[in-house]
Amino acid sequence: MTNVRNNRTLAKIQIILGLSMFLLMNSACERKDLFLRVDQTQIQVELFDISLDLLWGIDWQAEWQYSWNESISTYGQIGYSQPELIKGTIYNVDPATNKRFSSFFKIFDKDGGRLSLTAGSRYDMMFYNFGTEWTSFHQSEDFETYTASTRASSNSSWIRTRAENEFSEMPSDKSYIDYNQPDELFGTLVTGLEINEDPSSYETEYDEDGNIRYVYKIDANLRPYSFIYLFQIIVLNNNDGKGNRVTGARGLTATGLSQGVDLFSRKTFNSTISITSEDIKPMQNHSNVRLADGSTVENADIMASRMLTWGLPGINPLENTKARTRAVEYDQNYLGIGLTLRNGYTFTITQNITDQMHEKPAGGVITIYIDANDIPEDLLEKKQQTSGGGFNASVTDWENEINAEVTI
User: Which of 121, 124, 115 is closest to 10 using CA atoms?
Assistant: First the structure.
């Protein structure tokens, strides 16, 4: 008799979702599952504050040499920021065909929210941080794909081909369209969620009023869709007795990046773009600077920039498999840098960074070494003032001060 009464109660079913947000932060990994707490009336979504280790051996502290704020550490705070809002798209799934046939969505804040589901039904649920500025989303009519991408940018690219500049490593016949950086975006897709009418299939607990709740656990980790690359530009032999040959940079452009990502499969688009950043941190002089072979030099000048991307093309960057091998099939990666010389002249170089990028498909530190002695002497006698492109506002909270505490 009790089971019959419980089954009737669950005809109007409530689920409380404890949505575990797995973000890239600097603390130890702590795992919490997403909980479905079932009782009589409606759904409650609760957001927990979760963090985890950086993905797949990305040792930012060991690689990063530029100092954000020397009072904190030698590399500053690295990781994604916490989301204020989460968008949940709930798909109705046909049990016979396993196809999604309709959907609705709900925005949840840090205190949660409520919605209703039907007992005996099957659902898929897509969660990602809501309130993005530069990211465009597209849901297919058959609910089979859900993509995110960005629009073309007004920035001036700093990529130069071999035909344009003898100091370029880029082929003469390659070109890219420059796109905006994506927002920080992370989420998850939960599939095959069945709201069972039988209370005995759930764990039980009691709320503060003594009412019974039925608990069902599912795996729902929010993981990145966009990835952070930190570029550190190390200038060697910069001071020739007359002062620094290189005084800064007007911007940099990275090529061979994916144009977007499918949120369901996490596979990036095959089409490749470039992304330009004009936000270059001021040059700092450091001692005991590491070189590519592991040795050190007494001092060198370092500049830095941060870039958000969808990652490399044609792969799921979170699959720790042969991602770089498959990505190489699509494109190479080049970094163009507009260096500012002490006479105001802009000296542009383009370097191949494919190996570094494909070693780090989910983001990381990319290091570029430039020998200032390679800059032709006659360029230091010229006078040229080259302005960069438009302002790229896709990365925020990036104060242009050497000693600013910057959360990235």
Answer: 121
For the record, the structure tokens of 298 come out as 């007494």
Q: How many CB atoms lie within 10 A of CB 286?
A: 16
**Among 171, 160, 195, 183, which residue's Cα sits nearest to residue 349?**
160
Asked if 288 contacts 246 with a C-beta cutoff of 8 angstroms, the reply is: no
- State the pairing for strand pair 117-118/12-24: antiparallel
Q: How confident is residue 113, by pLDDT bands cut at 50, 70 and 90?
A: low
pLDDT score of 8 more than 90: no
Measured in whole angstroms, the distance separating CA 285 from the mean position of its chain's CA atoms is 29
> What is the per-residue pLDDT for 150?
96
DSSP letter for 119, please.
T
Angle of CA points 4, 9, 11, to nearest 5°: 100
| pLDDT surpasses 50 at 28 | no
What is the C-alpha to C-alpha distance for residues 215 and 196, in angstroms, rounded to an integer? 11
Q: Please give the structure tokens belonging to residue 179.
A: 């796109």
Cα Dmax for the chain:
94
Length of the chain as a residue count: 408
Rounded mean pLDDT, 372-393 = 67
3-state secondary structure of 356: helix
Alpha helices in 10-108 (DSSP H): 60-63
- For 355, the enclosing helix (H) or strand (E) is helix 354-359
pTM as predicted: 0.78
